[in-house]
Amino acid sequence: MKKKLSIKDIAEQLNVSKTTVSFVLNGKASENGVSQAMQRKVLSYIEKVGYRPNKMAQGLRTGKSKTIGMMVEDISDTFFSTIARKFEEILTTKGYKIIYGSTENNTDVTKELIRVFRNHQVDGYIIAPPPGIEEDIKALIEDGVPVIIFDRPLTELDVDSVLVDNYRGAYKATQHLLANGYKNIVMVTLLSEQTQMRERERGYRQCVEEAGGKPAILKIRYHEKKEKAIADIEQYLKNNRKTDAVFFATNYLAENGLEAIANCKLAIADRIGVVVFDDSNWFRLFKPSITAISQPIEAICTEVTNLLMERLEQKKEIAPKAIVLPTNMIIRNSSVPVKKAGRT
Amino acid sequence: MKKKLSIKDIAEQLNVSKTTVSFVLNGKASENGVSQAMQRKVLSYIEKVGYRPNKMAQGLRTGKSKTIGMMVEDISDTFFSTIARKFEEILTTKGYKIIYGSTENNTDVTKELIRVFRNHQVDGYIIAPPPGIEEDIKALIEDGVPVIIFDRPLTELDVDSVLVDNYRGAYKATQHLLANGYKNIVMVTLLSEQTQMRERERGYRQCVEEAGGKPAILKIRYHEKKEKAIADIEQYLKNNRKTDAVFFATNYLAENGLEAIANCKLAIADRIGVVVFDDSNWFRLFKPSITAISQPIEAICTEVTNLLMERLEQKKEIAPKAIVLPTNMIIRNSSVPVKKAGRT
DNA sequence: TTATTTTATTAAACCGATTTAGTTATCCAG
DNA sequence: CTGGATAACTAAATCGGTTTAATAAAATAA
Q: What range(s) does the HTH lacI-type domain occupy (chains A, B) (predicted)?
């Protein structure tokens, strides 16, 4: 019921003008010749009554909302929610809040999200972009709004971006399996045009071919009922009994793929080699536990926020940077005695 | 570079007043006697140029930001991020955006978050409250701000809340284990004063005692390094060889507890009964797969948002509601042949 | 002593919407 | 033909800040 006090109230209580209070509040006191005595007076009163300026009013006048818009495919995905947490941690220290939106990897949803975020006057965007959103992002940039892309590249667009080396990650994953004696590695990936998926595929292909093998790729349609995904993978394994290792291109696929493997009730179940792109806390609990290509989440977040802050504080033109980070291979309790592994 | 257009621009282009445009925009045209012709004219122009009002200005004038503040212990936790996603889904359809903050279950952090949210003029709060925050929340409510509590009760405070029946959930979990022939069930829980944890403990205790057993409770300190948690649980199992089943009070504990069980390398490893409070997609992948008490996430979200919308649209006083939802037991591939289970 | 600069403070415009209180013009009744 | 009601629209106040331009008082220079 006690209504919030405004800068006008403060000014009246102290018998000074709003201007003076505002100057003090914004650290522009000294440069505007407000006396030290006055500064102390205002500051201590502010402190005492716990006054905090209304962001709406500030935002209206300055055009800055102190809010960052974050758009990812799905905030409930562990990868993205972990990142969201880190962003929050870092951006809070800079006085920013985050509003989020899930794109569902859908262009129209994303377009609408961008529109809503614009109306909310967010100061900057952090986006894991869906395909086909180039034009809209270009428009943002041309309007001078800071945009940082991550997780998925946006080819043909010169924009700040932070990505991981999907190609190398997949290559290393495959290499690891080969080095452990596996001969028939299938890659299970998404039936999707996402660039990062194509890169992972390329890494796998390249590695297998260099070793003189023949790539085997199983593509699963996303967002279908997971039972379907499981059945598809199961089918494949049953039809290709020589398969002795699986490289899952995403966590989501591994989740279902592991069930498929279990369902097969094949002897291979505990001998099969498994590597997954993206790590999970649960992987270490399987036996044999699962090796993963993990993304450097911490680094991604600091790079993204650094780029963002740079843009937000930007005085002069700066050229967009494209940062590519290496992945980490987490080798767990490696698979199985190498010699016994193959079933050739 | 093309600067966004304002209602003033629209008005000038159309040779009408801002007032008229505003009335049309807010659906208050007819009740204010704006002619149909004029309404169409404005509407079609708005549509054509894609004008959208500035939320900052609207917010300043109306005091409504169309933003909801969500505070949970940790947004990267699967339970909370899943909920965050659902909230987003529902609230988006009502024209709201969400800003979030992680409380770390810390009172001071939460106090500051509330302060920040207030400055941002959020229209409503959805909070999974840490202990000791009663006063601050009471203050919010007294100021007439909608607050919905979930996940954790705030005893002694009359506020809208949505909780699950932790007591019954834990009771059922324990009962399930007993019914399957397990005799020595240990409950692994957090060393924490959180009410919902105490309820779970109470459910377990009650059930064991009713069956004439002696409760065994192992409390783990949270936020410690997980290696410590694993070691503690491992230690317990080694010191209490009669233990034939474990009831984990949280997902987090199960994650580490399962590793502890594996580390024990005891014969019991594949015979031990395991039930976890909170479900996880990964549980079905273990063998024997893990039974879980799952929270009705969908229902929690609809109840919370319903209460919230009710408050937001509230005309007259309404008494706070406390909603308690039942948990679901997800029995998976049940444990093990009952007879062989015990090791007595 | 007067003119000029510097120091300390403030009045008023502005941001972009909503909303209150009018203002015309038209219509109808008496 | 006049006065009151109604219909259609609008001027101006307002929300709570920031910022520009101005002012009064004190200090320095001429």
A: 5-62
